[in-house]
Amino acid sequence: MLCGLYLHGFEKGYIFVAQFGLNHITLNNNLMTQKKLITLVTILICCMGLGACKEKDKPVEVKISIPEAVKLLVGETYKLEVNVYPKDLKVTFESTNTQVVTVCEKGVLKAIAEGEAEVKATAGNVTKVCKVSVTKPNNIDKSRYLGLDASAEDQQYFAPIYIPKEEDFKPDKLDLFKSAVTPFGWIYEADAKDPEGKLFYRFVSPNKKDENGKEIDTKSQFCMDFLAYNHSMPGAPVYIRMGLYRHFAMDYLVKPETFTEPKDLKVQKELLKIMEHYGFTEDAQFTVLGRDNAYVAYNTKFDPKTPLRGVMFTEREEDHPGFRLTFQISYGRR
What we know:
eight-stranded antiparallel beta sheet, Bacterial group 2 Ig-like protein
């Protein structure tokens, strides 16, 4: 294919032709009649046009990938991870058994009943299949929840937290944790750094927008954006971690007397209400853990044999000017 054409010496009856790309052609000082010259140029231009057309008309190869298999519990939702090329190509979804699992136009699966089904994702003339297996959730001891006795209205904001027995805090218990928290709205989300859950299980809060894309009232959102059960972190005991994705402009876990503006003190009180709601009210104090300001309190009523320790702390991240807030629950006193 000709990528460039340069003519020189037309008025003198000779031509210099430069073809950039595959090779280089020079016809220099060859006297030609004007008629022959025009014929040669016409042929070259036609070749260039044909080459360009061939490149333009070449069909784009469609590529699409989805998980080969997914295991869900009845009542669980799961968003398919779909990669498609070209990126702007529309993907459609179809379930082969809607009595077992349904799928919406955005690729979100909903497990309806026990059984097997296939979900097909199609882009252009390419279709990929994900095999879906749905099983019943485990029976969960209701006494192992914090916040379960709250009103339905409060649970929309303070989602119940499952506190497993220490012996159940293991890397092969994913079904147990999913059975415990997904009925209350938490959505399991495998982490890219730990896709098989060998170190922790992470759940995220439901979407903060309704089906029409409208922002849901703050009081109807979970107070935390994610819930993680860290069962095998190297060098650390098991613990539960909840956090927010957003950052605060200032550190709200310094001692109350530090604040000069009433509005800042109000924000701090609202944050501490989260710990109070889950029963962390005993031996409460502001402190410093490492380099981070923190608020520590205990809940001994949940399990008198093994007190629960709650810590809310702020972290300043190097790549962000604000402060990130975390609420962590662990077993025993420290």
